[in-house]
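hi! just following up on the protien thing from before. the input was this:
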Amino acid sequence: MLQPIEAARRLLATRQDIVIFSHRNPDGDAVGSSLGLLHYLRGRGHGVTILLPSGYPEFLSFLPDVQQILIYDDQPELAERCIDAATLFFLLDFNSFDRVDKMAERMSGDDRPRIMIDHHLHPEPIADPVFSRPERSSTCEMVYEFIDELGDAARVDSTISDCLYTGILTDTGGFKYSTSPLLFRTVARLLEAGTDAYKVADHVWNNMSEKQLRLLGHCLANRMELLPEFRTGLIYLTKEDYEHFDIQRGDTEGVVNYILRMPELMVGAFIHEQPTIVKLSLRSKGSMDVQQICKALFRGGGHRNAAGGASFAPLGSTINRFKKALPRYAAEIEASYHEFNNQ
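and the predicted 3d structure came back as:
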């Protein structure tokens, strides 16, 4: 059996018409990895289209050729024609078809080759070859490794490196989570390839509108609740909040992280009411694994320090379910706090 990188090398040895998939509600890692891979593959002479189920946050609009991304929700017929014409698929930053919704329907029983590059836990058997490395910071870090393992690191120019650096920066929360010596060696090589780290950071972090700042103030002043006995805080938003502030995709990005700016808190939750579902995002510090909470209670998953899930119960019921679960994790949260603070 071929090693995954050799299988990928064979697939890319001849020109392909490639569709790159990534997940619904794409973040910096999904968009950055897709664009970085697109520019690399086009440089090798392949035809490439990026297809996302839904639109990307506005703050990513600075990335090169981001406007070429095809959004399934906006143009389903064109998206399906692209899927039908493809000879090869890349699945980036997800590892189960439920993350791409209707885009997966045309893949059922399809024997065209698919390559998965992903850093989430528990990949489903939806691709071959599979590059699954949950210990990596981001899919962007893995795309650089993929290019390097193909022997093409020299092809990584400033366009590719800007895309990959953006996903690494966002998925690590500004190099706070999931870092490693290997990651920083990769980042050094991206900087050597021409990435302007200040420019990327300015686009990523200094991009809030007046509306977003007022919304943040509302979240912190009126929608934040602290549970100090469990070293946890939560912020919630109602459907009425969404209407009042005209909240769009990306407007609440990073809100949950403000909870963890309080040194005594180890877990932050953002619970927000959508038209037909309640979504939950959890963040943590240290060794506290919030992925287990999302998996056990909210049919979700993710990473140790960043995970998400959903509930079909009302907002109040979802919040109460989260609160009632905290006692069973109290000892783990407290141990993580003392370990994190070396006490």
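The chain has two domains: 4-205, 211-340.
The chain has a mean pLDDT of 95.
cheers
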